[in-house]
Amino acid sequence: MIGDGVSVLIARALAARQCAVDPATALPLFLRHYEADPAELTRLYPGVDETLERLRARGVTLAICTNKPARLTRVILGRLGIERHFSRVIGGDSLPFRKPDPRALLELLKDLGAAPAAALMVGDSEVDAAAAQAAGVPFVLMTHGYHRGPLHDIACVAALDHFDELAALIAA
Questions:
Q1: Band (169; pLDDT cuts 50, 70, 90)
Q2: What superfamily does domain 48-171 belong to in CATH?
């Protein structure tokens, strides 16, 4: 159910439970609850902070393109202690479009002054892969996360099981 933004998540969850509540009515209630502590159950995968630190030290510019609301994304990054690594965050509410629409990723690259072919998108889902492919950005798939189908069906330049493999891939 996760990956296409919170409004789609709510609609899918209500439909799965055959709940007749209007998603537009449920969304503000969910957001109020979620905003109270958006990082309560969120943990970093092993090696994330160290890998981000290593990449940033090498001069790699890091940014986030997510369908999660931007403000909540920044709160989560802060609570996890990794906000310092990212120069820009584009959330699902930052622009009038969101992933898999490639314009979200292209807008981020434009802000950073980076060409799509010179960038690399790291993600964990078909939504991420579709946005990267449509934007002409090479895609690295993290095999854990929110993919819906078989991993071998997701187009990518590499599929990684552990986040600490990313620094070596980029260095190569």
A1: very high
A2: HAD superfamily/HAD-like (3.40.50.1000)
Beta bridge partner(s), residue 158 = 140
- The predicted model scores a pTM of 0.86
Give the per-residue pLDDT at 105.
97
Question: What is 101-150 written as a DSSP string?
Answer: SHHHHHHHHHHHT--GGG--EEESSHHHHHHHHHHT--EEEESSS---S-
Between the alpha carbon of residue 1 and those of residues 5, 7, 55, 114, 128, the distances in Å are 9, 11, 31, 32, 15
72 closest CA partner among 85, 89, 52? 89
What are the domain boundaries of the chain? Answer: 6-36, 48-171
Distance CA 102, CA 126 (A): 13
Q: Identify the DSSP state of 36.
A: H
Q: How many CB atoms are closer than 10 A to CB 69?
A: 19
- 168/1: higher pLDDT: 168
